[in-house]
Amino acid sequence: MTLANSCTESTGAAPLALYVHWPFCISKCPYCDFNSHVRKSIDEDVWREALLADLEYEARLLPDRRLTSIFLGGGTPSLMDPRTVEALIAAGTAHWAPAEDIEVTLEANPNSVETARFADLVSSGVNRLSLGLQRFDDDGLKFLGRAHSAREGFAALETAQRHFRRVSFDLIYALPQETEDGWSAMLAQALALGTKHLSLYQLTIEPGTRFASMVARREFEPLDCDAAAALYEMTEAMTSISGMPAYEISNYARRGQESRHNLTYWRYGDYSGIGPGAHGRRLGMRTARHRKPENFLAAISRDGHGIVEQAPLSPTEAADEALVMGLRLSEGIDPVEIAGRFDLASVVDSVRVEQLTGSGHLTRMGARLALTAKGRLLLDHILGEIAVLQPSAFVAA
Question: 102, 177, 345, 349: which has the fewest Cβ within 10 Å?
Answer without folding.
Answer: 177
